[in-house]
## 1
Amino acid sequence: MSPCLIDIQDLYTQFMTDKGIVRAVDGVSFSLQAGETMGIVGESGCGKTVLALSIIHLIPQPPGKIVSGCIIFKGRNLVKFDDAELRDIRGKEISMIFQEPMTALNPVFRIGDQIAEVYRLHQNLSSREALQRAVESLREVGLPAPEKRVLDYPHQLSGGMRQRVMLAMAMACKPALMLADEPTTALDVTIQAQILELMDTLKQQSGMSILLITHDLGVVAEAAQTVGVMYAGTIVEYTSVYDLFREPLHPYTIGLMEAVPRIRPRNGTYRLTAIPGSVPTLTSIPTTCRFQDRCGRAMEICRRQEPQMKEARPLHQVKCWLYN
């Protein structure tokens, strides 16, 4: 087994708002091995992006704050790092691809200057050397005519091109871990497949690990080896991709699977299955099972006490009273 690259234990990230305390990440624990891709899936608003931002301390403080927990990266607890130490980590050892490249890229700077900044900051290259490395990085991610594209502004590129620029920036210093926050959002299926294939190729070449955040189960099935299903700020199921699709255990995971549109109709009709109810607000997360109001298999104990994460099958953990 590959060595553990990052180990997150009981991570709590909260936001202080006028409406109360938003418990965006509420007791999340998982580990990621070197060279592995792990998917984090769940509905919008469940805390996936805040989890990724918490790892490299990019949540706005205030109102956000990591309340407690450990983020052990290469034997170091990132929760205890100060701003200067974190600046050395971000972009060099841990990089991130943000959800929307058009807003992540600065609209008033040329593409080449934005990529070159990574090399100047972390590798102390001159402006000329950094720009040349930027051209090479764009060539590595398959962007056509990179010598010309470094002179372009973000609005002059298509969505797929901008995503390749984000990949080039993320891979500039060959990081050990890349946080990919819905990297294929708003891309058509052809470009989406190309970006996923490119990410896998770069991972194989560099040996890095990827934390892939998405709401698309198809992307997880194609790109990840392990997966954590997130609901209302916490992970409710954690296993290999193979076991999750072969036998999902948590009722929420089963509901997500059934909500995926199918090509072939059931009983001659096309019917989209939906999970009833709505996600609880993160300012009032119940102290009981978080999914019990939407679950068709809820029991009396589900309404009285929150279940703990248990290993229901070998290497298959689930937070549900059906398996406790």
## 2
Amino acid sequence: MLASVVIPAYNAEEWISETLKSVLAQTHEDLEIVLVDDGSTDRTVEIAEESLRRGRFPYRILDQPNKGAAEARNRGWQAARGSWIQFLDADDLLDPQKVELQITQCLACAADVVYSDWQKLVLSGGAWTGDDLRAPVIGPDALADVLSDRNFLQLGSQIFRANILDLVGGFDRSHEPVEDVGLCVKIAMAGGVFVKARSNGPIAWYRDRPRSLSKSNQRRFVESCIKNAKLAEQYVRENSNYSARTVEAIVDGYYFGARYFAEHDWSRFEEIVRDIEALQPAFVPKTPIRLKVLSRIAGYRKAERFALLYRRGKSLGTNVWRDISARSQK
């Protein structure tokens, strides 16, 4: 069964060779590689072509002006010939048996998405080291599960049936940089089946780079998380077959945004709280415990306002004390 590995790449000369090495080492024989150069200005294409030319799998390199990872992936899977699509970012890695293991699972059941355990790599002392193993579990209540942080499905850890991508339309650029979660939300809403392929440890690795989009533009990241929650809320309002867990997961997504905007944009915070209260009128956060207790007494809005004033006062006091200490040492 042909599987297509789709790799969006933008100025990835530092990483692309190692990433392609992990693809070229795959034990699944029926494989093609589609690399989409997203307007790189460095040697990404030159290095990639050199690696691919030495490999045993057929490949294509497509190019486009810089449009972002979502559109690059969409172009890649739409041009791919495989029945199954493996997405892989240009700095991430796969275990040699990753595709074979998951394709075998595909043949054994009616899955639309097959996923496995994965691991984050963090840069420490100039070397990449493994973080804790991530072991997501997507159960029958798929929409609630894919919205949950504890079940985050790193994109490279999955393989997708091409038909399900056609059905939901692939990635939504407006949901970047968490358009991968948005894709899984759309698949879950469409009734897609998620199946786990068990493995002895992680079979995909994500490099947590300091300059990633989610870190460089925190507001955009938070707004994208809110968009995914809003997408799920629209489904809940239009359908009767949803669970209380799904509503709770949507509220958790809004609460994540509310906490950020309480610190940075109070009017946006108020908008998000209205979304929360439309689903849970007597909303009380689960954590942190002090905010939970105060919300029960004064309501969430006032509790968050008190918490904000407390944090600012504490920060101001700390800064004053530092100034006094610095002056006394002169």
## 3
Amino acid sequence: MPSVAVRNHLSTVVNAVLAGDSSAIEQAVRETISRAEDASELIGKISLLAMQGDHDGHAILTLAAASVLCRWLIALRHTLGEDTEGYATGVSLVVQALIATTPAIREGQKISPTYPSALFPSALAEGETVSSAVQKAVDAGDATMIERLLFGLYGTGADYRTISIRIYDGISQIFQEGGHALQLAARGSQLLDAIEWGEDAPAYIHWLTPHMAIHADEPEWTELVRSFLREARHSLASYRTRVAAPKNEHALALRSLLHSKASTQEVCQGVYDALITNGASARGVGSVIALAASDLLQQIDDEDHNLFVQIAHGLLYASSVRLVYTQVQEVEGLPLLFTAAAYLNLLYKELEGQTNASKAARSLSVGGGLIAPALLENLQEQLANQDLTGAISTTRRYLQLGHDMPALLGVIGLGAAQVDASADAGHTLQIVQAAGEEYLAWPKELAQTNIEGFLLVALRAIAPGKRS
């Protein structure tokens, strides 16, 4: 349910953003939110305005990341106790995100969107489905037709999951601009979750559809993925009727396969074997692909932060793919796993032999302290001081003692809020979001697998970042 404070003070926050006054933004945000839940909702509300002026998608990705990091503060509040003097409300995250996305919010304020007429399913040619029509429009680069088709679904009363699967189906086998379309679809959808969708789906559809249409050259390997999936012997249909419990241990073999010189065909076969032949779940396969992405980042020297951010796009894409299977269950979204795996394998081949392993990743030190609040306070100071070695040590100590993970991620999220999101296009927030989500979503049946790499990625994203 929308909070009274957010509803009553929204215009005050927006006016402060439009004025470009960071002090006024902070004051307005502080007066508006008293809980992390309020922070996430406030970001969601303002994102509807930002969508109208966000032409490249980076603003929404930044806002979506800040919204998720705010939700982790709920656990931090319970760990630290209620007397935190606003520390766990998310003010810093909201302010950082709003300042970074001010240009999109300003532009959005000037625009009154005009939506095209809906094309209802009943108006399609005989034998044509919404799915096939969307795919045809994607291939033709016809963003307006995609939008009309999705508005037609919306007009029939279809729920957001039905709309989402048509979106994911349409872009599941295309890849351009680093998989940008899928990231925008998944993260934009996740952002609307904070405000419970309601009547806001049209804004999301109107913003997203230009990014779905093919308008740039795709890498050669995408056609190899499509060719693999077109073969009848590689049908994914049996996944729909599976009743056995997932066997996610069979997905672990992908971790080494993606870090090899395997061909795209061999990578696709590995995904198919894990998913269909050996019975792993889509979420399990997605998690392992994301772990392989975090492994890749450990191969990059700590001093080469630009390369770290560049290669981190593999994790951002893989995490978005895994997120899809928490939103929808349909078979139509499964090709995304093949696309993600092929992309990660390509990044491995491009990176091979070019870098030195991270010194931080090899560190074996374990910090002192026993009590969760004390450890979290130490971690906060270490991140503020850009002390990567100390932050890793404290994090390992916290893990060793079995304290609450979302609370730890809450502090790491607040560390990300110290990095100038305007200077790095929100990448630190996005990387921390992806790494933290993948840690929390790791399959319980694979608990013996070391996934510390996700946390190392998050800490390494924060430590060298330019401070705001």
